[in-house]
């Protein structure tokens, strides 16, 4: 039986400020198999972990990520409307995250946020840092910018990449291969059983986002979807455990 992996969307973002070290640590402590996060470049070309191109939604500052140096970004507190801990949260650098995650067995899905702002050198900078920390086997790079993924495939074909997409693609496994990708990170309604079955035959991993409702989690876990990306790590883990327990009981009953 293929067990569905649980990826924490921007960390344990249902309870902690998204894309912060607090959210990443909480996801790990809860038992997540992987973490999904977003990377952009600062004015001084430091890779930082933040989803939006601007900082106002997730911090108490205003402006574009690209217009601040890393030290300037650290002046703003992150997650001011959702702090579940006494310690203040700040926008982390990718370096800070790697220093922590290298001591775990977590898989990290890095979304390159270069669909709106084409950060020059984002691919090279990210790949260099992955190599420095020797994390090649624990990284998946994804993006809505599929030109970026094709570039990564040429720079380092050993790094797994995944296309991000919102709507139904015809034979998405064939399209993914045109940019050297081995993963399909689709909006969760796209992940229907026929797609999952054929993708498995094509040896292409489907990891839908953002799967937060119980019924969707149950459906995808029962289909043995390779992974789901969710805000609700605890909820997803609980549903997976119940599915595992039910499967074990069914096998025992078959033998008796």
From TrEMBL:
One of its GO terms (molecular function) is phosphoric diester hydrolase activity. Residues 4-240 form the GP-PDE domain. It comes from the Bacteria. InterPro entries: GP_PDE_dom, PLC-like_Pdiesterase_TIM-brl. One of its GO terms (biological process) is lipid metabolic process. It holds the Pfam family GDPD. Coiled coil: none annotated. This is Glycerophosphoryl diester phosphodiesterase. It comes from Halalkalibacter hemicellulosilyticusJCM 9152.
């Amino acid at each position: 039986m293929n067990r569905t992996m649980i990826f924490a969307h921007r960390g344990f973002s249902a309870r902690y400020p998204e894309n912060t070290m607090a959210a990443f640590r909480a996801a790990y402590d809860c038992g997540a198999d992987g973490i999904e996060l977003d990377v952009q470049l600062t004015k001084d070309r430091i890779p930082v972990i933040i989803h939006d191109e601007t900082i106002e939604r997730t911090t108490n500052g205003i402006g574009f990520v690209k217009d601040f140096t890393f030290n300037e970004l650290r002046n703003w507190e992150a997650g001011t409307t959702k702090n579940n801990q006494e310690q203040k949260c700040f926008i982390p650098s990718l370096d800070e995250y790697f220093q922590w995650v290298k001591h775990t067995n977590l898989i990290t899905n890095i979304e390159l946020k270069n669909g709106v702002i084409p950060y020059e050198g984002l691919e090279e900078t990210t790949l260099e840092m992955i190599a420095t920390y020797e994390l090649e086997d624990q990284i998946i790079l994804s993006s809505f910018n599929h030109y970026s993924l094709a570039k990564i495939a040429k720079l380092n074909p050993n790094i797994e990449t995944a296309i991000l997409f919102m709507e139904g693609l015809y034979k998405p496994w064939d399209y993914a291969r045109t940019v050297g990708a081995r993963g399909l990170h689709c909006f969760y309604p796209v992940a229907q059983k026929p797609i999952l079955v054929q993708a498995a035959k094509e040896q292409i991993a489907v990891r839908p986002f953002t799967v937060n409702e119980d019924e969707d989690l149950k459906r995808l876990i029962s289909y043995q979807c390779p992974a789901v990306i969710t805000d609700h790590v605890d909820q997803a883990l609980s549903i997976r455990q119940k599915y595992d327990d039910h499967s074990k009981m069914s096998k025992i009953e078959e033998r008796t």
